[in-house]
């Protein structure tokens, strides 16, 4: 079993026993771009820990000896708890909102703590990836696309929705709504859990999670989750300092209908390329291509700026010149990505056709071909 603190190799690992449909919302784009803020449950302006604690439901099980063992383990290294919860900063409020909107226990929002140490780029030696550590074939079954430009298992929004779908579906299909058993199946697969239940029932037990004889990492899976939630419920008691994290989602989603490079989008939004790269770990290239990924996550405070830049109309004279001659005349404030969107071409093609190595070097009056001919 891998260390509970590992960020580059998460433990325990999911299995290919996961089956669910991906309920990722589709949003029809406007002419060039639509900005969409998740219609998640609106929370009072408070920190994420207050919101999370109000949704905890399994705290009475913290007295279990197996849970106490993990409480002591985490308590022995409070700096590691603080580091992992700091890493959760961009994601935890949004994940908490998704869990709450489904009526699930708040503890489930902390599964990425156990799975990946809240590192969306975490990958195991067995091929599991992302906050929720989803295996390749499992991701395929969940409807998470994978190709050279995109990995939906690593995208936080799509993988979160798929993982929560799976947990709910397994609980309903196999376990009469018992979420602890569903979490065991998330780790070990439904076949392993069902066999363990039958064995427990043959011994006269009820077949609940705590009755089962499971693989070692699955035996520790739920205790770890409840242990860390117990510490978060009263960090002072356990000598842990949690970072201040807002209860509002840290990002907004922008839906694109034309390719845009992360660098161009960052410049338009007034943020760094690194910030956008970290918010979009599912993007495997320098450009977000709507054929593979329609959404770009941006800091919530920058979404309006990016939308305004990308939807700002060009002047009538410029549009006329473009339409009549197959050329575009650069105006003050133009960017390569906005010009590409206006003419429904890719930013990379536009740069190649015009021999542009530095997209920031555009100058007013410059004439760009928009067809490559």
From TrEMBL:
<protein>
    <recommendedName>
        <fullName>LysM domain-containing protein</fullName>
    </recommendedName>
</protein>
<feature type="domain" description="LysM">
    <location>
        <begin position="326"/>
        <end position="370"/>
    </location>
</feature>
<dbReference type="InterPro" id="IPR008258">
    <property type="entry name" value="Transglycosylase_SLT_dom_1"/>
</dbReference>
<dbReference type="Pfam" id="PF01464">
    <property type="entry name" value="SLT"/>
</dbReference>
<dbReference type="InterPro" id="IPR023346">
    <property type="entry name" value="Lysozyme-like_dom_sf"/>
</dbReference>
<comment type="similarity">
    <text>Belongs to the transglycosylase Slt family.</text>
</comment>
<dbReference type="InterPro" id="IPR000189">
    <property type="entry name" value="Transglyc_AS"/>
</dbReference>
<dbReference type="InterPro" id="IPR018392">
    <property type="entry name" value="LysM"/>
</dbReference>
<dbReference type="Pfam" id="PF01476">
    <property type="entry name" value="LysM"/>
</dbReference>
<dbReference type="InterPro" id="IPR036779">
    <property type="entry name" value="LysM_dom_sf"/>
</dbReference>
């Amino acid at each position: 079993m891998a260390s509970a603190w590992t960020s580059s190799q998460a433990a325990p690992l999911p299995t290919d026993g996961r089956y669910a449909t991906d309920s990722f919302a589709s949003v029809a784009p406007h002419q060039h771009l639509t900005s969409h803020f998740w219609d998640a449950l609106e929370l009072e302006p408070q920190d994420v820990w207050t919101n999370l604690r109000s949704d905890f439901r399994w705290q009475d099980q913290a007295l279990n000896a197996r849970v106490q063992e993990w409480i002591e383990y985490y308590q022995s290294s409070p700096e590691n708890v603080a580091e992992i919860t700091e890493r959760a900063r961009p994601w935890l409020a949004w994940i908490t909102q998704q869990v709450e909107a489904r009526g699930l226990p708040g503890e489930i929002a902390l599964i990425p703590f156990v799975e990946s140490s809240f590192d969306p780029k975490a990958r195991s030696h067995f091929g599991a990836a992302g906050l929720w550590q989803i295996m390749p074939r499992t991701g395929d079954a969940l409807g998470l696309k994978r190709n050279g430009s995109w990995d939906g298992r690593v995208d936080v929004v799509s993988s979160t929705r798929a993982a929560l779908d799976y947990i709910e579906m397994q609980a309903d299909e196999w376990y009469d709504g018992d979420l602890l058993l569903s979490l065991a199946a998330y780790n070990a697969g439904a076949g392993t859990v069902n066999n363990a239940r039958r064995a427990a029932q043959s011994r006269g037990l009820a077949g609940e999670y705590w009755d089962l004889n499971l693989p070692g990492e699955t035996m520790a899976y739920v205790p770890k989750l409840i242990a860390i939630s117990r510490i978060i419920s009263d960090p002072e008691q356990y000598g842990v300092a949690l970072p201040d994290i807002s209860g509002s989602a840290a990002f907004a989603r922008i839906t694109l209908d034309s390719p845009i490079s992360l660098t161009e989008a960052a410049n338009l939004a007034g943020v760094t390329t690194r910030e956008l790269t970290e918010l979009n770990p599912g993007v495997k290239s320098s450009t977000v291509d709507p054929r593979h990924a329609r959404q770009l996550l941006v800091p919530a405070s920058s979404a309006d700026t990016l939308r305004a830049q990308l939807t700002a109309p060009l002047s009538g004279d410029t549009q006329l010149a473009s339409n009549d001659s197959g050329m575009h005349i650069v105006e003050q404030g133009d960017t390569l990505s906005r010009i590409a969107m206006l003419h429904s071409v890719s930013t990379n093609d536009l740069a190649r056709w015009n021999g542009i190595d530095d997209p920031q070097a555009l100058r007013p009056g410059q004439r760009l071909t928009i067809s490559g001919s």
